[in-house]
């Protein structure tokens, strides 16, 4: 039996019709590299062959009686690839705008919890502006956050990708077995044992948590703590969200970012966050909404290398950092960002890698879900101080071109979930020398994500010119 970790299950409990907890990706494929001419049936068949024996793709959730414990994973014995890989066409004229509208609609649809929590939409007829009118196939994928985080999601894609068009897919490692399907009595018995052990577990996490709070207060007094939550300024995307989505995509050069990193002594992540701060500053300033104080982002951090836990798909923590949206000069913003990030990382490293996962074990299924729905219905996100303005993720991607079922991946744009109180998510991913930027938002909060992401390449150019002028 494979029980969901508390953190994995929390993403199930957080989900409402407006707050959908799946992660998405827009994958643009050059189907002309496929060993045999593209057809939807052949692509669907290749995907089926790659995933049919992989538990992460063929397992579904099963609830525990009375909701006494987190759900468990069981094998979907009626697994059918046709329920997961679907076919669509971009509406005429098949350009970027039509593709974004279609993807935004798909992103706003919930996954079917009676089946494995993923699906792919194969979209035909897309004509990118820079492809001389040639058609491309786009795969819009969705996987529930209970199944993957950034790193594990990238690993799962390896079952479908290869280094050459006609090569076998990359392997995750030894073949995995499907979890055993327990009966109701076993589920109930394990749940009751878990409830009985909760006081002991609570005692184990209280002392480290108290020490963490004490150290955090000390760091704050010394001025070397990460940004404090509930101290962010309010913007138009910090309120109660709806289920409607807007998506915007952009590209920037990874080499140019590395050149700036080398010249300034910053990190790639420092440069990316500085670009995000500049893009947000320009976007809000255009609308007359720029706050006088800096926006603050929640930045997911993988703890896969340091976590002591062996179970669970999500092994992440989070740190808070201010983005310098109150600073116009891009180099000054980068210097401030680098210092803030250094303090935030040191502060984060002083916290147990498993702290978030430990506390998530106490998320009661029924109570947690009820609390989320009440929070949304009462629109409480608009009545308390802003926790953070948005989520920004930086996911490392492949340094060389990859092939998805034989089709070369021209672009891969990741898209994370949005939350009540933080209706904007920006995720960046490197891919064969390019940084792909994906922004997704509540449509009512950010109607035009393109108006935001277009500032990423513009901010990179500003930074490059500022460095040249300084030199």
* Rg, Å, rounded: 22 Å
Counted by DSSP, the helix tally is 13
Helix content: 25-40%
Biggest sheet: strand arrangement: 5-6-7-2-14-13-8
Residue share in β-strands? 15-25%
What string, H for helix and E for strand, traces the elements in order?
EHEHHEEEHEEHEHEHHEEHHHEEEEEHH
Residue stretches low in confidence (pLDDT < 50, at least 5 long) are none
Structural class: alpha+beta
Query: How can the largest sheet be summarized?
Result: 7 strands, mixed
How far apart the termini lie comes to 61 Å
What's the total number of strands? 16
In one word, what is the shape?
A: globular
- Overall pLDDT: 88
List keywords for this structure.
single chain, 471 residues, alpha+beta, seven-stranded mixed beta sheet, six-stranded mixed beta sheet, 13 helices, 16 strands, globular
How does this structure look, described?
With 471 residues, the protein is an alpha+beta fold. Helix content is 37%, strand content 21%. It has helices spanning 6-13, 40-51, 55-58, 96-107, 150-157, 184-222, 254-264, 268-286, 330-349, 355-360, 365-377, 450-453, 455-470, and strands at residues 2-3, 22-30, 59-62, 72-75, 85-89, 118-126, 136-144, 161-162, 245-253, 296-302, 316-322, 390-395, 403-404, 407-415, 424-431, 434-442. The strands form three sheets. The protein has a seven-stranded mixed beta sheet with strand order 5-6-7-2-14-13-8, with helices on both faces. Strand 5, helix 4 and strand 6 (118-126) form a beta-alpha-beta unit. Helix 1 packs parallel to helix 11 (365-377), helix 7 runs parallel beside helix 13 (455-470) and helix 8 packs across helix 9. The longest helix has 39 residues, at 184-222. It is globular and about 70 Å long. 42% of the residues are buried.
């Amino acid at each position: 039996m494979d029980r969901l970790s508390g953190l994995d299950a929390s993403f199930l409990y957080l989900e409402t019709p407006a707050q959908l907890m799946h992660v998405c990706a827009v994958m643009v494929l050059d189907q002309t590299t496929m060993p045999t001419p593209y057809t939807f049936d052949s692509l669907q068949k290749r995907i089926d062959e790659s995933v049919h024996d992989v538990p992460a793709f063929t397992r579904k959730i099963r609830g525990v009686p009375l909701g006494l414990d987190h759900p468990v994973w069981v094998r979907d014995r009626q697994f059918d690839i046709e329920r997961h890989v679907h076919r669509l066409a971009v509406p005429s004229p098949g350009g970027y705008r039509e593709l974004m509208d279609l993807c935004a609609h798909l992103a706003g649809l919930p996954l079917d919890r009676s089946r494995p929590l993923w699906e792919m939409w194969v979209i035909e007829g897309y004509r990118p502006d820079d492809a001389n009118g040639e058609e491309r196939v786009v795969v819009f994928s969705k996987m529930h956050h209970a199944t993957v985080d950034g790193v594990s999601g990238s690993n799962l894609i390896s079952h479908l990708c290869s280094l050459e068009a006609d090569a076998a897919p990359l392997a995750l490692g030894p073949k995995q077995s499907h979890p055993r399907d327990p009966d109701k009595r076993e589920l109930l018995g394990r749940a009751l044992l878990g409830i009985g052990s909760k006081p002991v577990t609570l005692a184990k996490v209280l002392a480290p948590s108290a020490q963490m709070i004490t150290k955090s207060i000390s760091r704050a007094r010394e001025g070397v703590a990460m940004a404090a939550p509930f101290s962010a300024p309010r913007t138009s995307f910090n309120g109660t969200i709806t289920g409607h989505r807007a998506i915007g995509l952009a590209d920037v050069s990874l080499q140019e970012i590395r050149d700036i990193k080398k010249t300034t002594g910053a990190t790639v992540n420092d440069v990316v966050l500085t670009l995000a701060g500049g893009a947000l500053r320009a976007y809000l300033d255009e609308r007359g909404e720029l706050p006088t104080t800096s926006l603050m982002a929640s930045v997911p951090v993988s703890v896969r290398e340091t976590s002591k836990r062996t179970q669970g798909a999500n092994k992440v923590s989070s740190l808070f950092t201010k983005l310098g949206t109150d600073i116009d000069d891009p180099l000054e913003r980068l210097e401030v960002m680098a210092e803030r990030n250094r303090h935030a990382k040191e502060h984060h490293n002083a916290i147990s890698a498993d702290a978030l996962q430990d506390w998530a074990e106490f998320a009661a299924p029924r109570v947690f879900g009820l609390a989320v729905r009440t929070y949304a219905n009462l629109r409480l996100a608009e009545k308390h101080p802003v926790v953070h303005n948005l989520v920004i993720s930086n996911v490392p991607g492949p340094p060389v071109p990859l092939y998805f079922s034989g089709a070369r991946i021209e672009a891969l744009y990741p898209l994370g979930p949005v939350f009540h109180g933080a209706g904007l998510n920006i995720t960046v991913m490197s891919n064969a020398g390019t940084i792909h930027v994906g922004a997704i938002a509540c449509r009512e909060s950010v109607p035009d994500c393109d108006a935001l992401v277009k500032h990423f390449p513009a901010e990179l150019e500003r930074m490059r010119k500022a460095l040249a002028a300084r030199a």
